[in-house]
Amino acid sequence: METAHTLRKIDDLERHKLVDASERAGIVSVLEKFSLAVTPHVLGVMNNSDSEGAVAAQFVPSVAELQEHPSESDDPIADVKHSPVAGIIHRYSDRVLLNVIKTCAVYCRYCFRRENVGPGNGGLTPDQLDAAIDYIKNDDQIWEVILSGGDPLTLAPRRLSAVMERLADISHVGVVRIHTRVPSVAPDKITDDVVSALKKHRAVYVVVHVNHADEITPQVAEKFALLADSGIPLMSQSVLLKDINDNATTLTKLFRTLLANRVKPYYLHHGDLAKGTHHFRTSIKRGQEIVRELRGPLSGLCQPHYVLDLPGGHGKVPIGHQYLEQLSSDTYEIDDVFGEKQTYVDTRG
């Protein structure tokens, strides 16, 4: 099983030559604060397909994580502020996050919930899950439930199926969305039983987290196909990461590879202000430049929304390149997709 052979300790990293012995003391300090998990599948990608070291950089701890910027927080998007009951995050009126579990198949080094996930962090108790489901039942404005976490696809299929059935019984819940890393980091866990569990709800969408095309191996592509062939729409979310995918060439390959595997690029996240992640973040200006470079050369089907999840729990906002500048009451200057300035007169202005 993937989980049985997952790398979780400094000795595992040294045995596989993922860190140098000279770094041991620093890495041990990192692992005292933040969880480690590298699945056998991810290790195989690192060894065989990681052409730029981009995969390893996402999962192998670094002493840079010990450096905390003053702006960083252990709750960068204020989950706690918006959690009326355990397991529920209710930031927007029509949708909630339901976090049943606090463990993941892998632990991304830039995770915005890195302080609250990992082995030893218990998921919801049966009573807490009942209370969370009741909260959703009692608010008929809630139209969408997002299973996040921790990673919901690390739940046993039986438990996942039970949660999906309970959500399917709530008439005002029109859509269930799954946020997961599992298909790209532990593809063996995507089985027919998991697909059957997901399909307990009439409208389920799976959003897979992928940051680099090297992560989409033939085995991962096979699992994307299993989900898509089962009628489950797939979308992706990626994080813009310095020296990993912060250029138009790398993102073009990623988004084209995703779309060719029937995964619609959905979000490109600006890095959150989680503790010890400063070395992963680009500037917003650089992010906007990259997004601008993608517009035109890259099919519109491949274009994700570049978003910032505002600190303090104020929600996601699009922060892409601004193409339009108003010059007068009815006249605008617009950047076209070829980098030229064009004038547009709004006759209805």
Name of the CATH superfamily of the largest domain = Aldolase class I
Structural class: alpha/beta
Work out the radius of gyration. 21 Å
Tally of helical runs: 11
What does the main sheet amount to?
9 strands, mixed
- The dominant shape is globular
Strand order of the largest sheet: 1-2-3-4-5-6-7-8-9
CATH topology of the largest domain: TIM Barrel
Class of the largest domain, according to the CATH hierarchy?
Alpha Beta
Classify the helix fraction into a percent range: 25-40%
Give the total of domains. 2
Q: Which architecture of the largest domain would the CATH scheme give at its second level?
A: Alpha-Beta Barrel
Distance between the termini: 63 Å
Arithmetic mean pLDDT: 95
Strand content: 15-25%
Spans of at least 5 consecutive residues whose pLDDT stays below 50 are none
H and E order: HHHHEEHEHEHHEHEHEHEEEEE
Strand segment count = 12
Task: Report on this structure.
With 349 residues, the protein is an alpha/beta fold. It folds into 2 domains: 251 residues, Alpha-Beta Barrel (TIM Barrel); 28 residues. Helix content is 29%, strand content 17%. It has 11 helices and 12 strands. Strands 1-2-3-4-5-6-7-8-9 form a 9-stranded mixed β-sheet. Strands 10-11-12 form a 3-stranded antiparallel β-sheet, with no helix packed on it. A hairpin with a 4-residue loop joins strand 10 and strand 11. Helix 6 runs parallel beside helix 8. The longest helix has 13 residues. It is globular. The mean pLDDT is 95.
